[in-house]
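User: Could you go from structure to sequence for me? I need the amino acid at each position, not a summary. Structure tokens:
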């Protein structure tokens, strides 16, 4: 029987895990949430929430995954035989499937914009025209479906190659390239006349934004940006050897996520302020405001290409982790079936995502509980699926796993295990439940 694969290096695992976390949440959602919630105060609360809540849950997934040395469903069965905790793994399978079905739609938008930038079609349009372009792109049924299919083909092609030759190899290329592109764009943005206003916005606190709402949004951003709650990190950690330090790996992933989020802000906000835009543009920041900004910069047509390549890499590193969750459960110990399973599930995810892809055009009427298919899939996963998954993962790590099991996985450092136990038993479940309740309430009042 073919043996279960492992990461060939610690850096390969960290880059893959960081890539799973550093997706649209860090480069798209973080800047617009920062812009609409006051800048520096939001960033401060985001960092605190990441370290106090997100990191402990991330470490919990690492501990469960490496201890189980199997897919998420099998890992829970091994650690709690005869009990229904394995349903957490199946919920991760279901919600990863749904997330990728609409996440791939956004990945398709990015491919469409990258293609246009390569043809130099994102210049000289005028401010209003960029908004009209985005509306026409996402409403065009053939374009969005072809682009979504292309994005899914890229994702499947990487995952079907396995851990060593597929995910690790791709992550070792895409993550360093992503960081290099981030650095180039950040330096260019910071050298603009008037860029200092954007830096002040990010790092000089305006305490009037220190509200309960800002704290909740920052907590939600920290929680979701680490890609916890769907067993993705359980799956990745299951391929990790026993010789690697889980604590240092988790800290590295969290630090990279915070660093990339701040770098994304240092690309966007200095340019926004330098060129006279407002920072609270919301979700349209990437597809509407940024092309208009780059159009006004020297060498802007090349910079916009770099930006959408960067965004594509960030989106792909997250999409491959979501497909890997599904594939690993589908494969179990039949490792020779990986390619076939990857293509079958990837194709099914594309088909399920078609209504989401058409939600801004021919299927724009509300169909599910007053929402379009795209919005319903987003709400179902981000406000229900992920928090519930993370809540039960924190309870499992805090109350079901034994102290001996946790100390063995965390190198026997009892003082750190005790601190982590406090956070994972009490702080994390309370914080996650608060985000969950707030998210449900926001849906009900719409």
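Assistant: Here is the amino acid at each position, in order:
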């Amino acid at each position: 029987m073919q043996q279960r694969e492992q990461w060939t290096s610690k850096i390969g695992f960290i880059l893959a895990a960081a890539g799973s976390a550093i997706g649209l949440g860090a480069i798209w959602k973080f800047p617009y949430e920062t812009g609409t919630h006051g800048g520096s105060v939001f960033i401060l609360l985001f960092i605190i929430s990441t370290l106090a809540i997100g990191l402990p849950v991330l470490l919990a997934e690492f501990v469960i995954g490496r201890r189980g040395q199997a897919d998420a469903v099998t890992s829970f069965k091994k650690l709690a035989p005869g009990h229904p905790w394995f349903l957490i793994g199946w919920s991760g399978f279901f919600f990863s499937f749904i997330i990728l079905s609409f996440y791939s739609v956004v990945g398709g938008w990015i491919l469409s914009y990258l293609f246009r930038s390569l043809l130099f079609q994102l210049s000289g349009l005028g401010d209003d025209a960029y908004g009209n372009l985005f509306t026409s792109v996402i409403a065009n049924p053939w374009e969005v479906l072809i682009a979504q299919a292309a994005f899914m083909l890229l994702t499947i092609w990487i995952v079907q190659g396995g851990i060593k030759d597929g995910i690790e190899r791709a992550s070792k290329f895409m993550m360093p390239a992503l960081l290099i592109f981030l650095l180039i764009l950040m330096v260019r943005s910071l050298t603009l006349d008037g860029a200092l206003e954007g830096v002040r916005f990010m790092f000089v606190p305006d305490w009037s934004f220190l509200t309960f709402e800002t704290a909740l949004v920052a907590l939600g951003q920290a929680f979701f940006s680490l890609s916890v709650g769907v067993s993705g990190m359980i799956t990745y950690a299951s391929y990790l050897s026993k010789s690697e330090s889980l604590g240092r790996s988790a800290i590295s992933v969290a630090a990279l996520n915070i660093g990339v989020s701040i770098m994304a802000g240092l690309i966007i906000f200095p340019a926004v302020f330098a060129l006279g835009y407002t920072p609270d543009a919301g979700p349209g920041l990437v597809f509407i405001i940024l092309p208009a900004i780059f159009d006004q910069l020297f060498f802007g047509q090349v910079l916009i290409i770099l930006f959408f390549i960067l965004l594509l890499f960030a989106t792909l590193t997250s999409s491959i982790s979501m497909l890997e969750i599904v594939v690993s459960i589908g494969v179990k110990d039949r490792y020779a079936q990986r390619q076939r399973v990857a293509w079958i599930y990837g194709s099914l995810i594309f088909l399920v995502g078609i209504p989401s892809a058409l939600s801004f055009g021919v299927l724009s009427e509300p169909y599910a509980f007053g929402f379009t298919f795209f919005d319903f899939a987003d709400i179902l996963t981000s406000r229900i699926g992920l928090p519930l998954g993370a809540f039960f993962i924190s309870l499992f790590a805090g109350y079901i796993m034994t102290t001996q099991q946790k100390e063995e996985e965390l190198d026997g450092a009892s003082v750190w295990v005790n601190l982590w136990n406090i956070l994972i038993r009490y702080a994390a479940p309370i914080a996650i439940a608060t985000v969950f309740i707030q998210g449900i309430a926001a849906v009900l009042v719409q």
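One structural detail worth keeping in mind: The chain has one domain: 10-444.
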